Amino acid sequence: QVQLVESGGGLVQAGGSLRLSCAASGRIFTINTMGWYRQAPGKQRELVAAITNDGSTNYEDSVKGRFTMSRDNAKNTVYLQMNSLKPEDTAVYYCLLQRPGYRDAWGQGTQVTVSS
User: Fold this and answer.
1) Of 63, 102, 97, nearest to 78 (Cα)?
2) For residue 96, which of 35, 67, 78, 112 is within the disulfide window of CB 3.0 to 4.6 Å?
3) Smallest Cα–Cα separation from 38: which of 70, 1, 76, 85?
4) Which helix (H) or strand (E) holds 1?
5) How many angstroms separate the CA atoms of 64 and 72, rounded?
């Protein structure tokens, strides 16, 4: 059993910043990839950023240079620092844990709303 708990969402004005956190508990293995996805109303869920257990990251093109994903393996927590937020970043943000040989685990999501 794995549990992912996101926090840090909220309402912010365009140009502002937010920091999302995702704390994982349960059967978490050292070899895994964690990601942040988002889903806006009427749109499909999309990958925002991902990080491997050794710290390698990749980002969706529209957030490159604005968002930074990091992880603290000792705390089993990943973070998404979001700067220069835009109204189009408004969505529910979900945390994902991927482990080889196991089903993907999702968090419950946290709402991010960016006002213009």
Assistant:
1) 97
2) 35
3) 85
4) none
5) 21
> What is the number of other CB atoms lying within 10 angstroms of the CB of residue 1?
6
Calpha distance 68→37 (Å, rounded): 13
- Average pLDDT per 10 consecutive residues for the chain, totaling 116 residues: 94 98 87 94 97 94 98 93 98 95 94 97
The two beta strands, 77-82 and 18-26, are antiparallel
- What 3 state SS string does 51-111 have? EECCCCEEECHHHCCCEEEEEECCCCEEEEEECCCCHHHCEEEEEEEECCCCCCEECCCEE
Residues belonging to the chain: 116
